[in-house]
Design goal:
Elements lengths: L5 E4 L5 H12 L3 E5 L13 H12 L3 E5 L6 H15 L4 E4 L14 H29 L2 E6 L2 H4 L6 H21 L4 E9 L13 H11 L7 H8 L10 E5 L2 E4 L17 H12 L9 H4 L6
Helix pairs in contact: 1-8, 3-4, 4-6
Protein name: SDR family oxidoreductase
Pfam families: adh_short
Family: Belongs to the short-chain dehydrogenases/reductases (SDR) family.
């Protein structure tokens, strides 16, 4: 499905990114394996993870190049895309997967914890996508796959930085799809459920939390890769501006914000009439204050 295509995968040194890179190579793509080799919280630097994945791909007969540029900076993100051009002569797809976590309850979250996560997830998605966009426009085609999260789509405790960035990625993806559809460019999102180095930081303080983590471990990163490969290939030419969730063997199409209910008053509204009429009429349709686990409450199969 990916023969002769060149794809950049960020954060591909392990977990979901690694499995996507391996799957792309198996389907014929040349892959730029990008990973700065940091810890799950963004510290340190190690070329080893990216090079290890490249070795696995080459050993299996595929084509790959390692890259350790940071996605959080416009200049280094541009170097990442240039790596694809230098290594393989073109760029056909981007998987924005790189990420870090610095979980903290909102009232305790520091500016550094906010900035670090938003820069990698949201700014990183922008920088890499922006660097690839002119090449997609010039050649009349290309595909973006961005990793979002149900922490942003629905909500979660202690992840204001991550949730805000991941919901921002969805809006960015939609904007890219709208702006670049006329050039044959597609942009879609995946909200993955998978046990990885990042999700291994989930706290386990109760038997219920421990059981949830055990269920989570069933959802391996390789389950995400097939959808990413499909969305990057020509077979998905009619799929654009969508958000999917993947849980084990299940793929879900996620809703996007639309009006649920409205009220009208010909003479206009006052604060008092809103209190006595508008809110009582609308409240039956209020979106509940749920977390991701409340909405995805059934066990994956």
């Amino acid at each position: 499905m990916m023969k002769a295509k060149v794809v950049v995968v960020t954060g591909a040194g392990g977990g979901i990114g690694r499995e996507i890179a391996l799957a792309l190579a198996r389907h014929g793509a040349s892959v730029v394996v990008n990973d700065v080799g940091t810890s799950a919280t963004g510290e340190g630097r190690d070329r080893g993870p990216a090079e290890s994945v490249v070795e696995d791909i080459v050993r299996a007969g595929g084509k790959a190049a390692a890259n350790t540029d940071s996605v959080a900076d416009a200049g280094t993100a541009a170097r990442l895309i240039q790596c694809a051009l230098d290594s393989f002569g073109r760029i056909d797809g981007v998987v924005n997967n790189a990420g870090i976590l610095r979980d903290r309850f909102f009232h305790k979250m520091s500016p550094d914890e906010w900035d670090a996560v938003v820069k990698v997830h949201l700014y990183g998605t922008y920088h890499v996508s922006r660097a690839a966009a002119p090449h997609f426009k010039e050649q009349g085609g290309g595909a973006f796959v961005h990793m979002t999260s149900t922490s942003g789509l629905i909500g979660n405790y202690g992840q204001a930085n991550y949730s805000a960035a991941k919901l921002g990625v969805v809006a960015l993806s939609k904007s890219i799809a709208l702006d670049m559809e006329k050039f044959g460019v597609r942009s879609n999102c995946i909200a993955p459920f998978a046990w990885s180095r990042m999700t291994s930081s989930i706290p386990v303080n109760t038997p219920e939390e421990a059981a949830r983590v055990e269920r989570f471990k069933q959802m391996t990163p390789d389950k995400i890769a097939p959808l990413a490969v499909y969305l990057l290939g020509d077979a998905s030419s009619a799929v654009n501006a969508q958000v999917f969730a993947v849980r084990n063997n299940e793929i879900a199409l996620m809703s996007q914000p639309r009006p649920l209910r409205s009220v009208h008053r010909s003479e206009g509204w006052t604060a008092e009439s809103i209190a006595t009429h508008a809110m009582p009429a609308l409240s039956a349709s209020f979106v509940p204050m749920e977390r991701s686990g409340d909405v995805f409450s059934w066990d994956p199969v």
